[in-house]
Amino acid sequence: MSRSAHPAGPRHGDVLPEGHFTAPPADLNALDPRVWAQTVERAGGGAVAVGGLDVRALAEEFGTPAYVLDEADFRARCRAWRDAFGRDADVFYAGKAFLSRAVVRWLHEEGLNLDVCSGGELATALAAGMPPERIALHGNNKSTEEIARAVEAGVGRIVLDSFQEIARVAHVARGLGRRQPVQIRVTVGVEAHTHEFIATAHEDQKFGLALAGGQAAEAVRRVLGLESLELTGIHSHIGSQIFDMAGFEVSARRVVGLLTEVRDEHGVELPEIDLGGGLGIAYTPEDDPREPHEIAKALGDIVTRECEAAGLAVPRLSVEPGRAIVGPTAFTLYEVGTLKELEGLRTYVSVDGGMSDNIRTALYDAEYTVALVSRSSEAEPMLSRVVGKHCESGDIVVRDAFLPADLAPGDLLAVPATGAYCRSMASNYNHALRPPVVAVRDGQAREIVRRETEEDLLRLDVG
Ligand SMILES: *Cc1c(COP(=O)(O)O)cnc(C)c1O
User: Fold this and answer.
1) What is the mean pLDDT of residues 155-169?
2) Which positions in this protein are listed as binding pyridoxal 5'-phosphate (predicted)?
3) Is 391 an annotated catalytic residue?
4) Which of 11, 40, 65, 277 is the most exposed place for a label (fewest CB within 10 A)?
5) Residue where a domain stops, chosen among 289, 307, 326
6) Does residue 269 sit in the same domain as residue 146?
7) C-beta of residue 196 within 8 angstroms of C-beta of residue 13
8) 9 is annotated as contributing to ligand binding
9) Domain-located, residue 199
10) Which is catalytic among the residues 78, 117, 307, 391?
11) Per-residue pLDDT averaged across 161-173, rounded?
12) What is the percentage of the chain residues whose pLDDT exceeds 90?
C-alpha cells in the first residue's frame, strides 16, 4: 500500500506483505494492556468485563455491534495530557476522532480544550456547554455560515487555512464588530508517519499555507494588516499515528523560524505556537507509543531550544491529540454470525457489523487485534479473518487474527482500540444502523450515543 494509507497507521508506513500476520500469541485468552482500555479484564468464568461490567450483560442490554467506551480511561488520559503539559501549554482534544455531548462534558470537567472542524462539531461543543473561548475552529473550507457562527459564539481561535479564508473571517468579524483571535496553519514540508518522517516532503496537500515559497509569510503580512483579526500564533499539524518525535523537531524548528522572520520583518513576537496532533497509539502489541509526559518534555525542549537560539521569548504551546486520548478507551463488541473455513488458508468469521462501523481497515489497511470475550477457550489457535456483513469483499475488520478453533456462532468478539475514527467515520452503507456508544464507569453503563433505528433512516428518506 502506498503512503496514502498512512492515517490508518499500517505499522511501517510502506508495504505490508500480502497475508502478513504475526505468530499466534502464547495465550489466546490474554488481554494485552497495551491495546485494551484500562479497566478491561477477564473476570471469573472467563468472560471479559469493563468498568466492572460483564460484556455479555452489555450485549444483552445494548445489543451488538456496540462501541463500549471506558469513561475512567478517557478521563485518566485527559488528565495525563493536561498534567504533562502543565500551565504553560494547552491541550486541545481533536473532536473529529470522536465527539458527543458527554465527551464534551468530560473534556470540560478534566480541563481540556476542544478542536472542531465543522459546523456540526461546533454545534455539539456549544450544546454541551464547552466555554467558547476554549474552542478552536479548523478546516480547509469553512463556510461563511460556519465562520459566522464561530465568531458570534466567541470561539477562542480560528485556524486560518487559505488566503480566501483570511478575507472571509476578517469580513465576518468586522461585520459583527469583533476582533477574532486567529492562528495561521502552515505546512512545514514535513510528512510524518508511524515510525518515520520525511523532512523535505513536497507540500502537495490541501491543508495550510506553505512556508516554502513564502505563502505563509504573505499570510502573516495580510493578517497583521487586518483590524478585525488578532494574529496569536502559527499552527502546524504534520501527520497521524506518529511514534517518532523527530518530525515534530523539524516542524517546531521551521515554525520558530517563521516566528523569527515575523519579528524581524514586522517587529511582532507572536505569543503562541500549536504543533498539532497525530500522536500514535497501540493498535497491536507491537506498537509502542510514547507517554504524554515524554511527548510534553520532547516538544517543550524542542520549542525552548529553538526559541533560545533565535532570541525569542518562548511562546505558549498547544497540542491537539485526538486518537491518543479516545482511541485506546473503546472496543467494538460484535456477535459471531457465521464461520467459513477455507481449507489450508484461513477461517472467515463474519460478525454483525463491518466497514460501516470501522472503515479504517478497508480505507487504510489498518491493523487491529481481536479477542473472544464472552468466554475463555483452551482450543487451538485458528488463523482467521474477521469480516463484516456488507456487500463488499473489502469489508474486513481484522485482516489476520488468531481466534480459538472452537469459535461458534453466538460468541462475542471484541476489537480493541476503536475509540478514534470509527464511530466518527461510521456510515449507513447497506442501510446499516450505526451502533451505539456505551460508556461504562464503576459498574454503570449508559448509551452516550444511542443505536440508530430504522425510523432514523426513514426520517431522512422523505419519499
Ligand atoms: C486530525 C487532526 C488532529 C488530531 O489528529 P490525531 O491523529 O487524532 O491526534 C489534530 N489537529 C488537526 C489540525 C487535525 O487535522
Assistant:
1) 98
2) 278, 320-323, 421
3) yes
4) 11
5) 326
6) yes
7) yes
8) no
9) yes
10) 391
11) 98
12) 89
